[in-house]
Amino acid sequence: MTPDEGGEDLFAHFSEIPSKGFKSLQENQKVTFEVKMGPKGRQASNIQPV
C-alpha cells in the first residue's frame, strides 16, 4: 500500500481487512488504515475500503 501523503510502501496482508467473506482490494482502491510494526517492518492494519 502507498500512503497518499507519500513515504514508503507498506506491507498489507488480507487478514488485516476486517470484513466478512472474500477479502480483496482493487489496485488504486482508496482505503483507510492504521500503521503497525510487524515481522516485515511497518505494515497496514485495520484496512477499510472507503
Account of the protein in words:
The chain has 50 residues and is mostly beta strands. The protein has one domain (14-49). The protein contains no helices and 2 strands. The chain has a two-stranded antiparallel sheet with strand order 1-2. Strand 1 and strand 2 (41-49) form a beta hairpin. The mean pLDDT is 91.
In short:
With 50 residues, the chain is an all-beta fold. It is built from no helices and 2 strands.
Furnish the topology, listing elements before pairings.
Elements: E1 31-38, E2 41-49
Antiparallel strand pairs: 1-2
Kindly give the count of domains: 1
Sketch the major β-sheet: 2 strands, antiparallel
Nearest-angstrom radius of gyration? Answer: 11 Å
- Label the overall shape: globular
**What's the tally of helices?**
0
Structural class, by secondary structure, is mainly beta
Low-confidence stretches: none
Strand order of the largest sheet: 1-2
| Strand content bin | 25-35%
Distance between the termini: 14 Å
Q: What is the helix content?
A: under 10%
Helix-strand string: EE
Overall pLDDT, averaged?
91
- What's the β-strand tally? 2
List keywords for this structure.
50 residues; mainly beta; 2 strands
